[in-house]
Amino acid sequence: MGPRWKGKGSKAKAAAEPMSEIISTLKSSLITSNSKGIISGCSVLLEATLEQSTALNRACFGRVIVTSEKDRQWYEFGLEEAFYLSYTLKCLEIVDHDSNVKTDAELWHYMCSKIKTFPEFFKAYSHLRVKNWVVRPGSQYGVDFVAYRHHPALVHSEYAVLVVSDKDGNSRERLRLWSDLHCTIRLCGGVAKTLLVLHVLGKGSETDSPTSLDEYEVIEQTISRWIPEQNREQNATTKTRDFPTTS
Amino acid sequence: MGPRWKGKGSKAKAAAEPMSEIISTLKSSLITSNSKGIISGCSVLLEATLEQSTALNRACFGRVIVTSEKDRQWYEFGLEEAFYLSYTLKCLEIVDHDSNVKTDAELWHYMCSKIKTFPEFFKAYSHLRVKNWVVRPGSQYGVDFVAYRHHPALVHSEYAVLVVSDKDGNSRERLRLWSDLHCTIRLCGGVAKTLLVLHVLGKGSETDSPTSLDEYEVIEQTISRWIPEQNREQNATTKTRDFPTTS
């Protein structure tokens, strides 16, 4: 299944503005303005200027929160997004409610305390983001993330992403039962996405610091239905349901 | 969501021939002919006469196996179906390959040895069958069973059924993660079924004999999305997306 572009010209538009350049622009914009996000529970908030707002929208980070202030926009980032902007792109400082800037280690510790699976989820998120995929939450489709080839305004999401880890005793994860696998694949087929399972494998070392991220390995696996009729030798020309005849 | 009948007249047809009567007819037919099913791995096979075949089709038990014998029909039953016919309806004897008739206790032991979750699955299956629901495998939709109000030729399946038990350490079951729940509900919505979760709760006693089935309790739970717009006071008349105004 290839990308499903939204309307004519979208493909060309995406090619003319690669996501890598859009991310670079965002990075410069946030660094120049010395942006500071405020950590709050399981999200990070940023009051954005018009320029920042445009850059965030184009790179598809965060979501706008509706406030009563008409001329200012507040953005809310999920923890993976915020940590990616802060730790990976180094373009966003994150402060607590007392305006103290948090170090990488402090942030890491905070996020791991909020979400037990943060190391694996962030590894998966950044694994796709560094390859210039746009990564958004997947709860609408019952998966962890959805991945877009470019901005969601131009293209439909291509992959439904599930994060699976090998943590000891982590039996509460997805796809361990056939019924779950069937359910997930059937849904992915129905919404024209490919199921991408990211196995995030740790090396058994401690996870006290974000440098431990380098020790994770990510194994990618796409899962799809095998349809006999579509996988025959003569498929390209015939699409028949009869047995193929020998000539 | 109510039943979705297939075409005009189906509802009347179903009302004229209640499933309870169809099951009674099947029962008589199988008892009269002293039917014997042959156990084979995870299924039970029955060579059916034309009359039996009609009765099985109408009651929706088993599936026809294609064989080279044109004038004879072989039926294959899943273990729940076979045990229901044998133990609950008492209309099918089941024999092994040496033609020895198996007792209820022997059958129970055999089936539990083949499928670890057989007690819970059979309890769920029979819970619906005794209420005259037609119960078929649900793997196509990533669930354990689907339930029809009447024969699948007359009506679409109404419930997608998941069996959940409280067995110690049974962490490999469905719906423990939000993503799984979202996935399942989204799929059920897409195929116009209601998710029915049957919690089969044991009383902690041994399961060496089928009489232990009486000690299980079944708690039914349907799960569906809550859509604010459809749950407002004024819903029945307005279906508006605006805030309701006070009059």
Automatic annotation (TrEMBL), chains A, B:
<dbReference type="GO" id="GO:0000213">
    <property type="term" value="F:tRNA-intron lyase activity"/>
</dbReference>
<dbReference type="GO" id="GO:0000379">
    <property type="term" value="P:tRNA-type intron splice site recognition and cleavage"/>
</dbReference>
<dbReference type="InterPro" id="IPR006677">
    <property type="entry name" value="tRNA_intron_Endonuc_cat-like"/>
</dbReference>
<dbReference type="Pfam" id="PF01974">
    <property type="entry name" value="tRNA_int_endo"/>
</dbReference>
<dbReference type="InterPro" id="IPR006678">
    <property type="entry name" value="tRNA_intron_Endonuc_N"/>
</dbReference>
<feature type="domain" description="tRNA intron endonuclease catalytic">
    <location>
        <begin position="122"/>
        <end position="201"/>
    </location>
</feature>
<dbReference type="Pfam" id="PF02778">
    <property type="entry name" value="tRNA_int_endo_N"/>
</dbReference>
<comment type="similarity">
    <text>Belongs to the tRNA-intron endonuclease family.</text>
</comment>
<dbReference type="GO" id="GO:0005737">
    <property type="term" value="C:cytoplasm"/>
</dbReference>
<feature type="domain" description="tRNA intron endonuclease N-terminal">
    <location>
        <begin position="36"/>
        <end position="106"/>
    </location>
</feature>
<dbReference type="InterPro" id="IPR006676">
    <property type="entry name" value="tRNA_splic"/>
</dbReference>
<dbReference type="InterPro" id="IPR036167">
    <property type="entry name" value="tRNA_intron_Endo_cat-like_sf"/>
</dbReference>
<dbReference type="InterPro" id="IPR011856">
    <property type="entry name" value="tRNA_endonuc-like_dom_sf"/>
</dbReference>
<dbReference type="GO" id="GO:0003676">
    <property type="term" value="F:nucleic acid binding"/>
</dbReference>
<dbReference type="GO" id="GO:0000214">
    <property type="term" value="C:tRNA-intron endonuclease complex"/>
</dbReference>
<protein>
    <recommendedName>
        <fullName>tRNA-intron lyase</fullName>
        <ecNumber>4.6.1.16</ecNumber>
    </recommendedName>
</protein>
